[in-house]
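User: Fold this; tokens only.

Assistant: Input:
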Amino acid sequence: MNTTPPSARLVQALARRRVPLGFLAGALVLWLSQPTPSTLVAGTAVAMVGEWLRIWAAGHLNKAREVTTSGPYRWFAHPLYVGSSIMGVGLALVADRVAVTAIIGLYLVMTLMAAVRSEEAFLRHAFGERYDRYRRGVDAVRGDDAEERRFHVARVIANREHRALVGLGIAILLLALKATYNSGSLWRATGRP
């Protein structure tokens, strides 16, 4: 008999399925969006800041092997998810529709909160008091060489961050194509070349 409470099962399911749910949300975003060249430029700039944060974090992360305290982990407990949220804001700016902003916001709140809860439960189980000290901001947690760790591209690749970069690139490309089509349709309707 499963003794896990239904709310915990829902959190686990959302955390495990956030990538397929992201593809579904992405398809809705693309369909509903009405990007323009100006929203494309502004939103892409914001989204790239989020991806930059994710790359920086991935270059410091030794996933499931330690409590990472270097790089952006000095300031954020979950810099990958902060980066994802910034990327979401950028994509919402590109899409230029309230419905798209709501879809992106709902997706991020549901899946990232579930991922954070799941990840924190794992880290507490795996690292116990060390993780709790890190979350409280106690400097003693940085007793190893983690604070001296430098960014490494090999860690970015090992953490598969290139997938997020490619995904963002594809999303921006598709939205750029839609913005080009929308601009052409607008120009034809107004008689401009």
